Amino acid sequence: MNIYDVSRKAGVSIATVSRVINGNSNVTEKTKEKVLKVIEDYGYTPNAFARGLGLNSMKTVGIMCADSSDPFLASAIYYLEGDLRSNGYDSLLCCTGYEVDVREKYLDLLLSKRTDAIILVGSNFVEGSKEKNQYIIDASQRVPIAIVNGALDGNNIYSTLCDDYNGVYGAVNKLKESGCSKILYLYNSKSYSGIKKLSGYLAAMGMDPKEPTEGNDYVRFFNGDINEVKDYLTTLHNNGLEFDAIVTADDNLAIGAIKYAKACNIKVPEQLSIIGYNNSLIAECSDPELTSVDNKLEAVCSNCVSTLMGVFAEQEVPLKTVFSAEIIIRETTRF
Question: At what angle do helices 3-10 and 48-55 cross, to 10 degrees?
Answer without folding.
Answer: 60
